[in-house]
Amino acid sequence: MKITTTTTDAPITEADILDQLRGMDLEVMTSYTLADAMREGSTVTTQEYGWGTGENACALSAARLAARARGYIA
Questions:
Q1: Hey, how many other C-beta atoms are within 10 angstroms of the C-beta on 3?
Q2: Structural domain boundaries, residue 27
Q3: Which secondary-structure segment (H or E) carries 44?
Q4: I need a labelling partner for 30 at 20 to 30 A (CA). Which of 9, 42, 67, 69 fits?
Q5: Between β-strands 56-57 and 46-47, what pairing exists: parallel, antiparallel or unpaired?
Q6: Total count of domains within the chain
Q7: Is the CA virtual torsion 7, 1, 41, 47 positive or negative?
Q8: Within-domain flag for 2
């Protein structure tokens, strides 16, 4: 599931991505790894070859977004 822009050309913000991740059915897990966070974050972002901003994210940025959505980091 990728975030798509609406008819307005407003940029997609980190808050938009976090809201979308929080709205997903996040199953309860006994352990949450960096790889899990990367896979989860990559479902709502587009691959970036730098750090990325908005809807574009490298693997670590995607993982950070997913971890924030789950409440592991602030």
A1: 16
A2: 14-70
A3: none
A4: 42
A5: parallel
A6: 1
A7: negative
A8: no
Output the CA–CA distances (angstroms, integers) from residue 23 to 9, 16, 18, 49, 66, in the order listed: 23, 11, 9, 27, 12
Residue whose entry in the numeric block shows the structure tokens 């997913």:
66
Helices (H), 1-74: 14-23, 34-42, 59-70
Residue 48, domain member (yes or no): yes
pLDDT of residue 8: 64
- Enter the tokens of residue 37: 């966070």
The per-residue pLDDT for range 9-68, each reduced to its tens digit, is 778 888 888 888 877 766 655 688 999 999 999 999 999 988 888 788 999 999 999 999
Specify if 22 maps to a domain. yes
* C-alpha–C-alpha distance, residues 24 and 51, integer Å: 24
